[in-house]
């Protein structure tokens, strides 16, 4: 048996673009454009590597954020990329039969399965899979926080020798971390680690947190955020319905909103969305005092950015009223 340490990069359409409005046969969070993988032997020795670029079929225009983060350009995908089915055939041949996948996080396997289903390809070979973050946490500090790959490397004093946000580079660094873990023990205790994670709150809790709760089984992000702003938006003191303002996106599928109770005032709400094994959405919700550090971060964010996409708000053009134009016809 071999461990296949997998990392991928995928493209997402810009909100509101024609690509974002496409109705696909299968719902996907992103279309894969790069696969990187490193083999670990059963003795946990780093062995051979695999990488391939994929020419997107549905989201052909590369999101500029994705391009900036990964360094991948559209021209390179057109010249070097291969169709997804061909890429998967090469990848499966390289993987072999008796394999277990390791990823750094929950997203990669989910995205891979969505893309396989989109192209009507078999997903069974992905069923043996572990999130190495869970094993790392269980065998280091025991936290529930999803640590960045860079943070884990620093904890193990691993020097970066490959580029970050490159599928093969990230897979290689993940493999170096996995080589130092007891993977067999991690596999045996994985269900316990996963349960601990699902009951946790994914990341550092800022000062001023006064309530926390996990919600399950929402159809998608829209339904989850709607519930968090609606029927589940309850005052932590009296339990009454609060009125929200607007969600602002943060890294790592996190969102924050400033809600107000008519009786007890304002509270900051921070949520993190994650996918359940059945494809539904789970929400980890934290409630903060309005005077907390987190609430101050919300205020700063609200001053300079639009919700969802992180861009600065457009400045509205000043228009002269009809009355003013009538008074100054020479300026019309």
Protein model, in words:
Helix content is 32%, strand content 23%. It is of the alpha+beta class. It has two domains: 2-198, Ribonuclease H-like superfamily/Ribonuclease H (Nucleotidyltransferase, domain 5), CATH 3.30.420.10; 209-304, no CATH class. The strands form two sheets. A five-stranded mixed sheet has the order 3-2-1-4-5, with helices on both faces. A hairpin with a 3-residue loop joins strand 7 (248-250) and strand 8 (254-261). The radius of gyration is 23 Å and the shape is globular. The termini are far apart. Residues 306-332 have low confidence and may be disordered.
Instruction: State the secondary-structure class.
Output: alpha+beta
Q: What is the CATH architecture term of the largest domain?
A: 2-Layer Sandwich
Oligomer: single chain
Number of helices: 12
Biggest pleated-sheet summary:
5 strands, mixed
Integer average pLDDT: 85
How much strand?
A: 15-25%
Q: Could you state the CATH homologous superfamily of the largest domain?
A: Ribonuclease H-like superfamily/Ribonuclease H
Form type: globular
CATH class of the largest domain: Alpha Beta
Instruction: Compute the separation of the termini in Å.
Output: 78 Å
Helix and strand pattern:
EEEHHHEHEHHHHHEHEEEEHH
- What fold name goes in the CATH topology slot of the largest domain? Nucleotidyltransferase, domain 5
Q: Supply Rg.
A: 23 Å
Strand order of the main beta sheet, please?
Answer: 3-2-1-4-5
Count of individual beta strands: 10
């Amino acid at each position: 048996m071999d461990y296949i340490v997998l990392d991928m990069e995928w493209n997402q359409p810009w909100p509101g673009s024609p690509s974002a409005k496409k109705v696909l046969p299968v719902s996907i969070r992103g279309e894969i454009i790069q696969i990187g993988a490193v083999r670990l032997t059963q003795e946990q020795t780093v062995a051979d590597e695999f990488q391939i670029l994929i020419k997107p079929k549905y989201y052909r225009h590369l999101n500029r954020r994705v391009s900036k983060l990964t360094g991948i350009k559209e021209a390179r995908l057109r010249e070097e990329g291969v169709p997804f089915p061909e890429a998967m055939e090469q990848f499966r041949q390289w993987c072999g039969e008796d394999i277990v996948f390791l990823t750094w996080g929950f997203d990669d396997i989910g995205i891979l399965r969505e893309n396989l289903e989109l192209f009507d390809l078999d997903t069974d070979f992905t069923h043996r899979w572990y999130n190495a973050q869970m094993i790392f946490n269980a065998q280091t500090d025991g936290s529930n926080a999803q640590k960045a790959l860079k943070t884990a490397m620093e904890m193990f004093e691993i020097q970066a020798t490959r580029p970050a946000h490159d599928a093969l580079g990230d897979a290689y660094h993940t493999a170096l971390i996995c080589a130092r873990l007891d993977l067999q023990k991690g596999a045996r205790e994985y269900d316990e680690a996963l349960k601990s994670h699902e009951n946790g709150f994914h990341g550092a809790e800022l000062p001023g947190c006064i309530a926390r709760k996990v919600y399950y089984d929402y159809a998608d992000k829209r339904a989850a955020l709607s519930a968090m702003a609606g029927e589940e938006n309850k005052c932590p003191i009296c339990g009454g319905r609060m009125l929200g303002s607007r969600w602002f996106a943060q890294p790592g599928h996190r969102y924050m909103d400033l809600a107000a109770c008519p009786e007890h005032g304002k509270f900051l709400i921070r949520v993190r969305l994650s996918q359940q094994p059945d494809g539904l959405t789970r929400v980890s919700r934290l409630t903060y005092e309005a005077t907390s550090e987190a609430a101050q971060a919300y205020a700063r964010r609200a001053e300079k950015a639009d919700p969802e996409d992180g861009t600065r708000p457009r400045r509205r053009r000043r228009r002269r009223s009809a009355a003013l134009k009538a008074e100054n016809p020479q300026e019309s």
